[in-house]
Amino acid sequence: MATVSRRRATDDPAWAKVLVIGVVAVFLALVLILPLAAVFAEALRKGLGAALDAINNADALAAVKLTLITAAISVPFNAAFGLCAAWAIAKHEFPGKPLLITLIDLPFSVSPVVAGLIYVLIFGLQGWFGEYLVDNDIKIIFAVPGIVLATIFVTFPFVARELIPLMQEQGTSEEEAAVSMGAGGLYTFWRVTAPNVRWGLMYGVLLCNARAMGEFGAVSVVSGHIRGLTNTMPLHVEILYNEYDFVGAFAVAALLCLLAVVTLVLKTALEIQPGVRGRRGH
Amino acid sequence: MGVTLTVLSLLVLIPLSAVVLKAAHQSPTEFWAVATSQRSLAAYRLSFGAAFVAAVINGIFGVLTAWALVRYDFPGKTIVNALVDLPFALPTAVAGIALATLYAPNGWVGQFLTPLGIKAAYNPIGVTIALIFIGLPFVVRTIEPVLRDAAEDVEEAAASLGANRLDTILRIVLPALAPAWLTGFAMAFARGVGEYGSVIFIAGNMPYKSEIAPLLIIIQLEQFEYARAATIAVVMLAVSFTMLFVINAIQAWARRFD
Questions:
Q1: What is the mean pLDDT of residues A47-58?
Q2: With an 8 Å Cβ cutoff, are A103 and B13 in contact?
Q3: Residue pLDDT, tens place only, A88-135
């Protein structure tokens, strides 16, 4: 033998490697890459000009604006809640802690359609506060507040579940040291706790934002699909698609794809930071 | 602490109770009639069946993907690694219209399936395809960290005692992955049962045939049948809670081996 291959006992034979990587490559190409490619191919079917026209019109731009507004309210809200919840859970001892963690995770296991339905049952015409809202001329369902509420619900756990294990791991010793040297509670939080979790926080915010901008089911139930008023980008995609305006639908979809790609790039960059857990289903 | 509980109650717990209260407005007979109507049963069968098949397929290819990512080096690994999370980052409606276009009879993939007599889009097969897309990262991302942490010395020990590679994988590696695999499977299944956006475009949405349970809720809502919508929602919530309980139980069981 000219070359002696030094294969460790835990290495797989070369043919197995090639086979596994080949199967995975074909599977991922079919399941992940092909849909992504299809969106851009369909968007550009009638040329770049047609695709840009589909984005650069009043209804599409209104949808982009509403999506940005929704994310701008729901993401900071959930980030603040996530910090609060993680702080309460990780740095304090109290009974029922596992139950609280499970309850915070709950929105992930609820169908988005049910998430929308619950707000219709409360704020809709027939709902708990229906009459009161009509009498006072407040619109929540089929209006922006409902869209924001439904989005907050479906993105509720993202930041909290990223920060809870991180804060638990870090323990309370640094905070205790700060307090023992005379720092106040809030000062300790901003100067000791928050900097320690900033990468994890950004990671949670990133995922939260992607879902907030892309949510479809929950928002679809509460939106009423009023063009130019209560249409988010994903809902606008649906309307155009159902009207057989495929270039328009896929052009707006391509914008959302770009958002997804940017999210994945940032996510990959964040994952090499210390303290970022990631790598976990949600 | 107080803030956490207040926000959680106001935004999640009280609204969820609204569904149960609304459904409880009906008599038990009415509730049962809606919850178990032929159309509802067909919808559960499709939602649960397609989610199960998709989770099984993801269970197989998810392990292979996690294995390749953890154990092998290959060009483009960083990109593949990032791409696995695409279903988390891509809005479901976008995935929905893309898959519907791909698997339609004249689509890139559909055109090869039609001569074989396979009708993928607008059929339960289409629902399953969408749920495979949605569920993949759950399986890969729950198995990956366990595989990464798995001690290779156990495998070395098995090899040094004369086990061949296949034996080692089947009898040492895979059993150790079982709890993570089950967790990923349950998460993908749970997500698939409730999934809406990626499914409705490719499903065809024919009553009794390709109509998923979440769509049935929407249809009842559009007819202002709030109690009926709430009834189906309660059934789905019960399933969600059960899945959540099962996932927690699997994880508690897995921790016993740590």
A1: 91
A2: yes
A3: 898 888 888 888 988 998 898 899 999 999 999 999 888 888 888 888
Q: Which two three-digit tokens encode residue A189?
A: 């939080």
A7 touches chain B (CB under 8 A): no
The answer to whether A266 faces chain B, any CB pair under 8 Å, is: no
Distances (CA, A) of B8 to A82, A87, A152, A159: 11, 15, 11, 14
Classify B196 as helix, strand or coil.
coil
Q: What is the pLDDT of residue A7?
A: 61
What average pLDDT does the segment B170-185 reach?
88
- Which of B5, B9, B12 best probes binding to A when mutated, by most A CB atoms within 10 angstroms? B12
Q: Quote the pTM value.
A: 0.91
Closest CA–CA distance from residue A24 to any residue of chain B (Å): 6
Q: CB contact, 8 Å: A258 with chain B?
A: no
Using CA of residue B165, residue B171, residue B172, residue B173, what is the dihedral sign?
positive
pLDDT above 70: percentage of residues in chain A: 94
- One DSSP character per residue, B155-184 reads HHHHHHTT--HHHHIIIIIHHHHHHHHHHH
How far away is chain A from the Cα of B169, in angstroms, using its nearest Cα?
10
Domain ranges, ordered by start, for chain A: 14-43, 55-271
Neighbours of B161 (CB within 10 A): 8
Residue A197, SS3 per DSSP: coil
Domain count, chain B: 1
Which DSSP state fits A13?
P
What mean pLDDT comes out for the span A191-205?
89
pLDDT digits (tens, 9 = 90+) for A207-257: 999 999 999 999 999 998 888 888 999 999 999 999 999 999 999 999 999
Q: Do A27 and B221 touch (CB under 8 A)?
A: no
Q: Do B244 and A102 touch (CB under 8 A)?
A: yes
Helix (H/G/I), strand (E/B), else coil: B192: helix
Task: Find where tokens 């870090």 sit.
Answer: A170
Q: Which CATH number fits domain A55-271: 1.10.3720.10, 3.90.1150.10, 3.30.70.100, 3.90.930.60?
A: 1.10.3720.10
In chain B, the residue whose alpha carbon lies closest to the alpha carbon of A264 is B82
ipTM of this predicted structure: 0.89
Contact list in A for residue B85 (CB cut-off 8 A) is: 264, 267
CATH number (domain holding residue B234): 1.10.3720.10
